[in-house]
Design brief:
Elements (H helix, E strand, L loop, with lengths): L8 H13 L2 H20 L2 H18 L2 H23 L1 H12 L3 H14 L4 H18 L4 H10 L2 H4 L6 H8 L7 H8 L4 H15 L6 H11 L16 H21 L12 H6 L3 H20 L7 H14 L1 H19 L2 H11 L7 H16 L2 H15 L6 H20 L4 H10 L3 H29 L4 H26 L1
Length: about 500
């Protein structure tokens, strides 16, 4: 079973069960058990080996991994920050301010999109921050939590993958194992990341054209008929809009400082790195923890002396923030364990073998890479793991640095990974978008899946066009592909709208 199609069965079963039963915890756990059983069968280790692999090599090892622990701490700190802003009245004050400046459902959704675009440093940070800030506003205008979760998710990974200064750019740069500057390669690939750009375009189109389709339309109709509860009931302080803006701005600035600190920006002598190199070499997990904890301390210093919120009330936000993130933490722990099962079955090796065999049909390769990356990220719930598997293969298949197909294929790899991550029920970004919007996780997955598929199909066709026009040069190929892709996206949405 190791290194064969069977290695992909555990995540496929988990995803299928989650979509069928609408219950994610047990579905993930069943996938983990199947993965552990497959591994034990191959290793001939019996029941003892099965339980050891699932719990010791799986769950416990994942929860003790330094990177994962850092992400969990970051989640708890962000949950605490959200609880602080709500209790202090900053979120309520922003909601009151928004009532005067945001006049419609369209305005609330457009504001959510723009805020998501502005917070491009990290997708985790984006999901929870945008959700906490915009949820009271979208609740007021009766935008469904499912729609809010989609807008959050669609401005998380898709924005980070086209932002040169982000934790995602740093991750991609780290997977380039040759002498070439990884960040420079990332920047060259940005114009061909069709999925990311088309996702942003689709958000604006469906909001401005005022229509939704599939199950999202049903949730939007239900939301318009009833009043959604917001976070105002939690207010016990006397905060102003400043008491929301200050924590958010301090989070952005200090998380950026934390990341470049881990990358060596503040080091002396030969260890010193410039800003770009420091970002490329940063440890996002540690940097986000350092930045968020520093922002939390600064927020307390601003709140307590001004008597915006009593010190005792501030401290009570710590357990409240943790409790708010328990669901997301549990899903993340199970998703990480499922990935560990898949890794132990060498799913990556199986997919890599398929990719290397496909090198003969080079003009179709970008589209094929997009599909493989999408499927792999969807099955494993990780974009970064997909980057690590496929980017080195793309570089090996196209060793010539000046070959346009090299750039197009690497872009297709990143785009496909983001697309798969975007709609995967076991993706940490998808999980945190649900948490940020306070939306049922399975509802979020099922409502955004048709939206993702529309953009994914358009992107797939666009990569076919790019593959067959690469001989005209990188610029001409890009222009033709963009025209075809944009026309397809607009035409598809108008067709769906008129068909309704």
């Amino acid at each position: 079973m190791t290194g064969t199609f069977w290695s992909l069965v555990p995540p496929i079963v988990a995803i299928a069960l989650a979509l069928i039963t609408k219950e994610v915890y047990s579905s993930l756990f069943v996938g983990i058990l199947i993965g552990g059983a497959f591994f034990a069968i191959d290793a001939h280790s019996g029941f003892t080996g099965f339980f050891t692999h699932v719990f010791s090599d799986g769950l416990i090892k994942q929860l003790s991994d330094p990177w994962n622990v850092g992400i969990l701490v970051f989640l708890v700190v962000l949950g605490t920050m959200v609880a602080l802003m709500n209790s202090a009245g900053g979120s309520a004050a922003f909601g009151d301010w928004a009532k005067k400046h945001i006049k419609s459902r369209v305005g609330a959704q457009v504001a959510t999109i723009f805020l998501g675009i502005l917070i491009f440093i990290d997708d985790y940070f984006n999901c929870l921050t945008v959700g906490s800030v915009m949820r009271p506003v979208t609740d007021k205008y009766r935008v469904s939590r499912e729609k809010l979760a989609y807008l959050i998710d669609a401005t998380a990974a898709p924005i980070c993958i086209i932002a040169p200064i982000s934790s995602w750019a740093a991750a991609v740069a780290g997977f380039v194992s040759e002498g070439e500057n990884g960040l420079a390669l990332f920047c060259k690939a940005i114009p061909f990341n069709f999925y990311a750009f088309f996702t942003v375009g689709m958000m604006f189109l469906i909001v401005c054209l005022k229509f939704d389709f599939s199950s999202m339309a049903r949730f939007e109709s239900l939301a318009e008929e009833k009043e959604l509860s917001s976070d105002k009931a939690d207010k016990i302080g006397r905060g102003t809009v400043f008491d929301l803006v200050f924590p958010i701005v301090s989070l952005i600035l200090l998380c950026t400082v934390g990341m470049i600190y881990t990358g060596g920006f503040f080091a002396s002598g030969e260890n010193h790195k410039n800003f770009i190199d420091a970002f490329a070499n940063s440890d996002a997990s540690v940097g986000l923890v350092l930045g968020s904890v520093a922002a939390l301390i600064c927020t307390l210093i601003v709140y307590v002396p001004r008597r915006v919120l009593p010190f005792r009330a501030c401290m009570s936000c710590l357990p409240e923030g943790f409790k708010a993130m328990v669901g997301a933490i549990l899903i993340l722990a199970l998703a990480w364990t499922l990935k560990a099962m898949t890794d132990s079955l060498e799913a990556a090796k199986y997919v890599a073998g398929l990719m290397e065999k496909a090198g003969a049909v080079k003009s179709f390769l970008p589209a094929l890479i997009f599909v493989v990356a999408l499927f792999l990220a969807f099955s494993t719930g990780t974009s970064w793991g997909t980057f690590g598997i496929l980017i080195p293969i793309c570089i090996a298949v196209f060793p010539n640095v000046s070959d346009p197909l090299r750039i197009i294929s690497i872009s297709a790899c990143m785009a496909g990974a983001v697309a798969g991550d975007h709609c995967s029920p076991i993706s940490d970004t998808t999980i945190m978008a649900s948490a940020g919007a306070q939306c049922d996780h399975v509802n979020h997955v099922s409502t955004q899946l048709p939206y993702v598929m529309v953009v994914a199909v358009v992107s797939f066709i666009t990569y076919i066009v790019a593959g067959f026009t690469h001989g005209l040069g990188i610029l001409a190929s890009g222009i033709i592909s963009w025209i075809v892709g944009a026309a397809l996206l607009l035409g598809s949405l108008l067709f769906i709208k008129n068909k309704k």
